[in-house]
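Need residues for this backbone.
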């Protein structure tokens, strides 16, 4: 099932999400639906709040980055097979000198901005079988995780922009909330005026 993706301005995107237990209702189906939804929107990551469910769950499939010629062959090969489910994740550490990368978000279509993040993270999480994992990631993989992790913390990539940049895109963000944006995937807009 393909869910509509919740647009900027919906309160669910600002919620601190809740941990879930192994017996969360129909979790395998939800995970499968999230992958289907993400692929339908050509995304590389999707967090549960983006489909209106405020739980600490996000998914990633970074294969789209595996043919980026600016990345090393090693990183391309890693990203080709980097498909992962993160449940109840907790970033333990972020290190290294911040680097810039142009980010976008399925909940904020048509807005892409340069965002600074640290290049290396250590994260503890449960996989889809509820096995606990603690892993280190760096580069693009780390960045995608940081972006999705922000979602389960109620944060968006636009929060990391300078106040000047935020002022520049304010009108665009308001339009997204009202549904005044062209998208080729299903979305749910918080301020879309109800047609009578």
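Answer:
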């Amino acid at each position: 099932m393909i869910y509509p993706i919740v647009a900027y301005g919906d309160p669910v995107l600002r919620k601190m999400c809740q941990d879930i237990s192994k017996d969360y209702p129909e979790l395998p189906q939800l995970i499968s639906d999230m992958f289907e939804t993400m692929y339908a929107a050509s995304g590389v990551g999707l967090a549960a709040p983006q489909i209106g469910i405020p739980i600490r769950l996000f998914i990633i499939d970074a294969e789209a980055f595996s043919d980026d010629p600016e990345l090393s062959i090693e990183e391309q090969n890693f990203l080709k097979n980097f498909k992962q489910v993160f449940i109840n994740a907790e970033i333990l550490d972020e290190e290294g000198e911040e680097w810039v990368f142009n980010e976008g978000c399925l909940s904020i279509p048509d807005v892409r901005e340069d965002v600074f993040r640290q290049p290396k993270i250590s994260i503890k999480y449960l996989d889809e079988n509820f096995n606990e994992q603690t892993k280190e990631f760096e580069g693009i993989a780390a960045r995608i995780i940081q972006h999705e992790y922000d979602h389960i913390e109620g944060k968006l990539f636009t929060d990391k922009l300078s106040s000047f940049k935020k002022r520049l895109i304010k009108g665009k963000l308001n339009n997204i909330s009202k549904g005044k944006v062209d998208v080729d995937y299903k979305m749910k807009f918080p301020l879309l005026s109800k047609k009578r």
